[in-house]
Amino acid sequence: MNRLAKWMGATALCAVSGAASAALTLAGSWNGNVGVSVDGIGSNASPVGQVQATIPVGATILQAFLYSAGTPSPWYADSPTTLAAYNGAGITLAGNAITNFDTLMGATSTRADIGQWYTARADVTSLVQSLTAGAVTNNFSWDVVEGSLNNRIDGEVLAIVYSHASLPMGSVALLNGGQNTGGETSVVNLGTPLTDPNAPGFAAQLGLGISFSCCNQQSTVQINGTTVTDTAGGLNDGLTSADGSLITVGGLGDDPGNNVGYASDDELYDLRPFLSTGDTSFSITTNNPTNDDNIFFTSLYLTGQITDVRPAIPEPETYALMLAGLGVVAAMARRRRRG
């Protein structure tokens, strides 16, 4: 096979794998008497500030992730782009060094000057378990320090999943964002059909984590093709309006009713109006028309059974184009053999 054929084959395969790796992907899901605490903080001060958590007394910590959202590269040549950069920066939570960042994600902009965000995620479950052990309060505040990357990290998000017998049966899912700003769709699959979303006690909430966002840079969220908001973004959890402090996340202290208007959008959304009795799945589509925001995290809470979250299957015409490309490769290979 000649060089052109090899290139076209690689391009077609990359198109398939790229689509699979770009959308929201499942970091983990938990079913039972579960709940979730999510909060964020960003600034160019040291310490950055305090990240909050609300956890019922006596709850069991099932999982805790710390996300650290760097500024984009090549927009800033010294933005963090590797796990080693994050692990060596001196990032701390409650005075404890975080050197176990093990997952890298982040959006890709359609603007070449912005490029890509490299957001790092660390498993801090054992640390949060120790920080909350024996607590007699529901509320916690812990200092965050970003070390040598202070001006090149927009902020942190701390997501904690817990269980407690007093909670209703439900599901929590945490999703890593690695999306293209031009738009991505993921499908949430359910183990059992949904009960009536309008019934008392039914709950369905989605929270977004977005960095490098300010100044009317807005993202759109759709559930099953219907727009939930077109004003997601901003720096609600950033303490200063400057790169290195531009972060927002839907979570503690936010109101899911605040989704009309950029200034008031809390990035926390009530999904009940967009779901129906008997649903066995639903889709989440996000896009950022300004091509300059990093949607790096999503949380889901549902009084249903989330089993997995997967990228949506490309449209038939997308597959047709991919297969056509592969067909050209095969034809060229056959001609070469005949020659």
Task: Describe the structure using short key phrases.
disordered C terminus, 22 strands, five-stranded antiparallel sheet, 339 residues, disordered N terminus
Helical content class:
10-25%
Order of helices and strands: HEEEEEHEEEEEHEEEEEEEEEEEEH
The main β sheet shows up as: 6 strands, antiparallel
Distance between the termini: 12 Å
- Quick one: overall form? globular
Beta-strand content bin: 35-45%
Arithmetic mean pLDDT: 87
Brief overview:
With 339 residues, the chain is α+β, with helices and mostly antiparallel strands. The protein has 4 helices and 22 strands.
Account of the protein in words:
The protein is of the alpha+beta class. Strand 6 and strand 7 (96-97) form a beta hairpin. Strands 1, 13, 15, 18, 19 and 21 form a 6-stranded antiparallel β-sheet that branches. The protein has helices spanning 3-22, 83-87, 125-132, 316-338, and strands at residues 25-32, 34-41, 49-54, 60-70, 73-74, 92-93, 96-97, 101-105, 115-116, 119-123, 139-145, 153-163, 170-176, 184-190, 204-211, 219-223, 226-232, 247-249, 268-270, 281-287, 294-302, 306-311. Helix 1 packs antiparallel against helix 4. The chain is built from 4 helices and 22 strands. It is 17% helix and 39% strand. It has one domain (24-311).
